[in-house]
Structures are given as structure tokens and as C-alpha cells.
Amino acid sequence: xxxxxxxxxxxxxxxxxxxxxxxxxxxxxxxFAARGVKATLVTTPRNVPSFSxxxxxxxxxxxxxxxxxxxxxxxxxxxxxxxxxxxxxxxKFFKATKMLQQPLEQLLQxxxxxxxxxxxxxxxxxxxxxxxGIPRLVFHGTCSFSVxxxxxxxxxxxxxxxxSDSEPxxxxxxxGEIKLTRMQLPDFIKLEVETDLSKLLKEVVGSELxxxxxxxxxFYELEPAYAEHYKKVMGRxxxxxxxxxxxxxxTEDKAWRGKEPSINEHECLRWLGTKKPNSVVxxxxxxxxxxxxxxxxxxxxxxxxxxxxxxxxxKKGKNEREEEDWLPKGFEKRMEGKGLxxxxxxxxxxxxxxxxVGGFVTHCGWNxxxxxxxxxxxxxxxxxxxxxxxxxxxxxxVLKIGVAVGVRQWLRVVGDSIKRDAxxxxxxxxxxxxxxxxxxxxxxxxxxxxxRAVEEEGSSYFDLNTLIEELRSHCS
Length: 476
Ligand code: UDP
Description:
The longest helix is centred in the last third of the chain and has 21 residues. The protein is an alpha/beta fold. It is built from 19 helices and 17 strands.
């Protein structure tokens, strides 16, 4: 009787407006909803299509206006993906997100949810939730390893104790002798000057400490030492509930995540179906990263030289002209049947999960990294920005399921430094030979662990249940 009289747990999810945050938050909302929780996603008009495939699951969507023009952005600019290459626009974007406090507060007033899961980029959400006496959970969108690296760098500042940008230093008080260089650190960590963004990120740390806890899209067995470190040494209350992408079970759900894919899922599966297991390398750099034409040319040449079959995702539309400047002459025709170039948005999880795919060249965005782990494929790591250099270390040094292509410099979103020979070498290293087999073996074991983690009795299943139960008792 007591449980019947309890009010249904109602969780508000408020993701940052970037696909790397919208996609896993939607998956998380689905997971909560599947456990009988009322889930509401809060977003802005132009980001609603990202959530259009919550088929069969009852998730409410509440829309608030994004004050683009008020913050000096072009009308309709509501997602950071399209403007991330301009730091000035990024600052304006964050300014606009600060103005979302009042409409969010209004929604909390109107709906009286029992809990707010808000993105790390909204540090003010902790205080708003407190006004309504409800817990605020933080969602970073990355793993315990990388949030802990960030915290250690802030606390101990080892990068200030080396004499050059390229001299490696060890992350202090951190398991595993992880080395980085100053060149690989984000501007907001290494630069002395304070910007609006670095200020915001400092506030993130404070708000996290004052919040109820952190939901992590990772699973305990992937990074046990770091999950413990985050909780015990960094003192965070955290629940590992991932990989959240595994809530997508059928072809359509796997294919349609965040945006409509630029290839029909059946066509994609047909192409992959003609290939032998582990014979195709998949190359994709997430939703934001951009490369110059000359870098794309190097990738094309490197892939060609590697002699591997591939699916390569390029964020460019089809050119009117027959030849495109970023491709060697006649490249696409020559690669017919062997290599597929997808222009636009790929059905990434569907592709990675196919048995024909045996390797992944990734920018190490956390979602992609975890999706690669889940699919059990070795990776070529090609980090560009954000916390991607930390994720690279987890993949290459801790998990030993990948090789670095050799990027040395944190560059925000435009990379332009890797030559064809390095690409050829790294692709061959994960696709053929003894080393590739060993990495693939380890990756497959982790992939199995990932799947077990979200099944009944699995660690992530258990953590999510624990969190929901705790929230229920907190709110009853
Ligand atoms: N993604 C996709 N198709 C694409 C590019 C990206 O489905 O063509 C998805 C990918 O599966 C992942 C997310 O978009 O879930 C990208 O997030 P990630 O953290 O890897 O990188 P970000 O885009 O934030 O740099």
C-alpha cells in the first residue's frame, strides 16, 4: 500500500544543446522511462527533432525558447555543433544558455518534478533545483577517468611544473601513471587568462559538489580503478548507468540517433552484409569536428594505401561538380564496392555493431569511444578537443584496445596535422596482424562486459535501480 500511495517519480532531463549531449540524454531518459519513471526532456524548438525517435516509450518533451538573437547569435542558432569553430560564437552560445534559467524555473514551478538531471554546462541548475527542494543530478557526458583527470589537473596543476609544452607530466595522485603534455590540454585548463568559458567551467566543479550526485554514461567494469577514484578520492556520489546506447535494440532505433542518417539503414546493412567479419574500418569524427580539404585528402590517401575496406563519414554535402577538391581524382569511383563515403550523418551505432566492422578511427568523443568499446572494436585514436585527449589515454594506455594516430596538439574543432603515412600505419595496426588480433580480443571482452552491465543483475542495471530507489525514497 505504501508504495501505491507514493507519487510517481518524475525526472526532468535537461541536456546541453549539442548532439554529443542530446543523444545520450535521450537514451538515459528512455532507460528511466523503461523502469516506470515519468521522464520529461526539456529542450529548445530546433533541437526537438533530435528526440523524434522516442517511439513506443512515453517521454514527454517540454520546449523552451532559445534566446539566440538576445545573445548576439543568428536567429535559429540553437545547437553548438554548427558554430563550434568560432570561439566568439561559442561564448555567445554559453551566454544564451545562461538565459535559460528563468524558463527552466517556470517549468519546474508548473510541473513540480521530483528530480532534475541537468547537463554539466548548466551549473546554475543546482540552485534552481534547490529552490524547489528537489535533487539535481549532473550529467557530464564523459567517463570517470576523464572527469577525474580534469579535477586532478585543476587541483595539482602539474602542467605548470614542466619546462615546455611538449614535456610529458604524470597526472598526480591518479592510478596508472597517465602522462600528458601541455599541448594536449584544453585552453580552458592551460591558459592563465580567465575567460567566460573558463569561469563557467570552474562553476561547474562547484555546482557538482553541491549537487545530489553524478550520472555517468560508462560502466564500472570498464574503469573500476577510476570509478572508485572518482567516488572515494574525488568524493563524488556517482552512478554508472551505461552504455546508454544499448537501450536501442532494433535497427531503426540504432540507425536514427540525433539526426536522420544520410544513408538508408537497409542499404547500409546490405553493403556491410557483403563483407567478411572484421574487414571494414569505420571512420567518423563525431558531430562537431571539421577538417580542412588538405587533411581530408591525406585521410583518403592513407585509407587507400592501407588497402582496407572502409566506411568514411565526411561532414560535407555532395558537390555539383564531378570531382571534389578534397578527394584524389576518381577516388570514389575507384573505391566502389570497397569504400563507402557517407556525406552527412551516419547511422553510427548500427554500423559499429555490424560484424563486418573490425576497427574504428575516432576523434575520441566519449559517446563514440564508448560505442566503439560496446561494439568490441579496436580503435585508432585521433583526438581534437574537449576531453578527447584524456579519452585517448584510456583507450590506448589503460584498456589497450587502440593505437594513437599521433595528434600532438589540442586544437578545438579543426584538425590539420596528420599525414597519410601515419593514417595508413595506424589503420593497418588495428585491422591486420597479431597486434590487431590481440587488441580485438581485448575489445571483444569489453564489449561483452558492456552488454552484461546493462542486463538484469548487471552493474549498470543495478546502479540505475539503486539511483531510482534512492530518488523514490528521497521524494516520498
Ligand atoms: N553520431 C552519429 N552519426 C554521425 C556522427 C555522430 O550517430 O555521423 C553520434 C555518435 O554515435 C555519438 C554522437 O553522435 O553518439 C557524437 O558524440 P561524441 O561524444 O562521440 O562526439 P561529439 O559529437 O560530442 O564530438
